[in-house]
Amino acid sequence: MNLFKKALLIAGAVVALSANAQAATYKFAVNIADNGSTAEALHDFADGVEERTDGRVKIKFFWNGVLGSQDSYLQQIQKGVVDLGLVNSATLENLIPTFGAINLPYVFRTADEYGKVMDDPAVKEVLFTSAAEHRFAPLGYLSSGFRSLYVTKPVEDISGLAGLKIRTMSSATYIEMLRRFGAVPTPLARSELFAGMQQGVVDGAEGGLAGLYDGKLGEVAKWALKTDQTRLTDFTVTSLQFREKLEPEDLTIVEEEFARVSADTLAVADKHQNEAAEMAAKEYGVTIVDIDTAPLMEAVEPMYEEARKDEGKRQLLDTIFEIEGRN
């Protein structure tokens, strides 16, 4: 073998070793099950990143809250122990109060309004301006559709919610919303919801109706109330260390792939919610109730007045209403 061929082989080996050294697998914490439209979007994102980076960036998901609750793994992301995580706007509101504006009931009346607001540069700037101060970085959002109510007892209108114990997240906005609906807000871990309804700890929950089928909650919650009160947003956030570890071109790929799947979820989220609810009706005998939402909207009007007392929320609400063409 001549010296030129040897040099080529050595150079090739060095390049291969260098590529292998740069390849890494990053931890992505999730508190939902590995099914449904959000899970599909996350898999699509991870596959796209791995393919476009030629395997340099691989993502391993930890589903069903294996790494703890959202609050818990967000702290690990802030420390750089976990690389990425799915964290909803209710959890982020506890850390950055301005997020409470997008959690207000009926702030989004249609999917089109939601998409316009969430993709607006001014809204993104307001929401993420202080993220770095809290030692995490936003990657983007996934739309999971409107949230409604499902219960274990028959309910036909707002009066039927009086005194019902409704599971919710530990969010001041969601707790106040349910209180104004006349229900008894009951914070409970998502993993405990099925048993909680079975045992009467709670009488139902607020959430996407797709959970009645995807999470088999329709086995115990037999009434689905289409209230469409909020559109909880699932944000993917990363540790600051994760961004520092990646080569600039790989970070660009990660951002581009997430932007791609984000746009796709906006198109399919509501379709999936409706189809899954229909499957729950067919398979589990769930009754879908088209409840009159006007009394619910009226009940939560004071929440807007209260939100406007916070300067950050007031500015964001003004921006949202301008985009939506509301007074």
Automatic annotation (TrEMBL):
Keyword Signal: yes
Domain of life the protein comes from: Bacteria
Signal peptide: 1-23
Gene Ontology biological process terms in this record: transmembrane transport
Keyword Lyase appears in the UniProt entry: no
Keywords: Signal
Alphabetized Pfam families for the sequence: DctP
GO molecular function: carbohydrate binding
This protein's name: C4-dicarboxylate ABC transporter substrate-binding protein
